[in-house]
Amino acid sequence: MNYLSLPKIDLHCHLDGSVRPQTIIDLAASQNLSLPSQDINEINALMIAPETCPNLEEYLMRFELPLSVMQTADAIERISFELFEDAALENVKYLEVRFGPQLHQQQGLSFDDIIAAAVAGMQRAEQKYDIKGNYILSILRTFPKDNIYAVIDAGAAFLNKGVAAFDLAGAELPGFCEAFIPYAEYAKQKGYKITIHAGEQGVGQNVFDAITLLHAQRVGHGIHITSHEGAYQQVKLHNVGLETCPSSNIQTKAVEVLSDHPIKAFYDDNLPTTINTDNRTVSNTTMTDEVRKIMQTFDLSEADYYNIYRTSIDQAFTSNDVKQHLLSFAK
Ligand SMILES: O=c1[nH]cnc2c1ncn2[C@@H]1O[C@H](CO)[C@@H](O)[C@H]1O
Ligand SMILES: [Zn+2]
User: Fold this and answer.
1) Binding residues for substrate
2) pTM (global) more than 0.90
3) Which family does it belong to (predicted)?
4) Which of 90, 96, 200, 243 does the annotation list as catalytic?
C-alpha cells in the first residue's frame, strides 16, 4: 500500500506543535532571539517529546521553544503556510489546525492580529496547493479565564472565513468541564462548532461532561471512554467524532503500546473514528506515518481506510462544497 499517495484528512493538529525546526532557527535569527543551540538536530531533539513521557505535562513542555518565535504576525503567517504546505505535500486534502491565541501575546499582538495571521498563512497555501482547511481556536484550560470571551469575539469575525471551531486544550484534570460551561455556550451561540480535548489523560467522565455540558460535537482523543459506559453511549448516541492521535497517545501514556490502542475496537463498533497527527513536530510524525502505523498494527484493508476517510469528511467542520470535493478522492 502506498500510504503517501492515499488522500488524507487531519482534524486534530496543533500549529505550535508542528513547526519546522529550521523555521525556529530562521525566526530566532531574524527576531534576535537566542536559542539553546543552532544545530538543527539539537533543536529537533528539544522539540520532540520522548517516546514515552511520564505524563501529559511533560509532553506539553515541548511547546515553549516554538512559542518563543511565534509572537509576531509574520512568524505566525509563515508557520501556518508551512504547516499546510507540509500536509499538502503528503496528500492531506483537508486540515483543521488548532492553536491558542492566548499563547501569542508575549509581544502585545491583539487576538485579531494573531487569528488573521494564521488564517492568511492557510489561505496562501490553499491558493498554491490542493488542500483546504479551517482553524480551531483552543483555550488553555490552565490559563486565567478573563480573556476567553475576547478570544471568542475576535475569532467570530472569521467564522466561515477560516475559523470554524472552539476547543479546550492543555493539562486535563477530572471535572474540568463545569468551569467552562458559559464560554462553550457563548461560542456555540456565536456559531462556532465545538470540539474538546477530553479522555486523554483524564477520566471518561470528562468526555461525558464535554458532550452533555459543553456541546462537544467531537472530542480530542477520547481514549478513556473505554472505562466509562455513560461516555461511550453518549459518543454513540450523538455520533461524536473521536479525534484519535495514535503516536501522541503513546507518548503521553494515554495508552501503553499501539496494539493496546482502542481505535480498532471503536472502529469495529461503528463509533465515528478518525486518525490524526496531534503535533507533527512534538510527536515526530506525519499523517502518512499515523495512517501506516494504524493500518499495519491492526491489519486494516484499503476499504477500512476509506471508511475512516469518509468518517473524517462527515465529521469535518466545513461546508458541503468542500465535503463534496473531499468525497471525489474517496474510493
Ligand atoms: O495532546 C494534547 N493535549 C492537550 N493539550 C495539548 C495537546 N497537544 C498540544 N496541546 C496544547 O495546546 C496548545 C495550543 O496548541 C499547545 O501549546 C499545548 O499546550
Ligand atoms: Zn491535541
Assistant:
1) 14, 16, 170
2) yes
3) Belongs to the metallo-dependent hydrolases superfamily. Adenosine and AMP deaminases family. Adenosine deaminase subfamily.
4) 200
Contact (CB, 8 A) for 87 and 10? yes
Domain boundaries, the chain: 8-327
Count CB neighbours of 168 within 10 A: 26
For residue 278, the CA-to-ligand 2 centroid distance in Å is 5
Give the Cα separation of 297 and 205 in Å (integer).
28
Contact 219, 240 (CB under 8 A): yes
Which atom of ligand 1 lies closest to the CA of 170?
Answer: 5
| pLDDT score, position 98 | 99
Q: What DSSP designation does 18 have?
A: S
pLDDT at 202: 82
Nearest CA to ligand 1 atom 1: 278
Please give the number of the atom of ligand 1 that sits closest to the Cα of 63.
17
**Ligand index nearest the alpha carbon of residue 15:** 1
Q: What's the CA gap between 119 and 103, in Å, rounded?
A: 16
Which is the closest atom of ligand 1 to the Cα of 98?
15
Query: From CA 130, how far away is CA 69, in angstroms rounded?
Result: 28
pLDDT along the chain (331 residues), means of 10: 97 98 97 94 92 86 96 98 99 99 98 99 98 98 97 98 98 97 98 98 95 98 98 98 97 95 98 98 98 98 98 98 98 86
CATH topology classification for 8-327: TIM Barrel (3.20.20)
Active site residue 256: no
Helices (H), the chain: 21-30, 40-47, 56-60, 64-68, 73-88, 111-128, 148-156, 181-190, 204-214, 229-237, 246-251, 263-268, 287-297, 302-315, 320-327
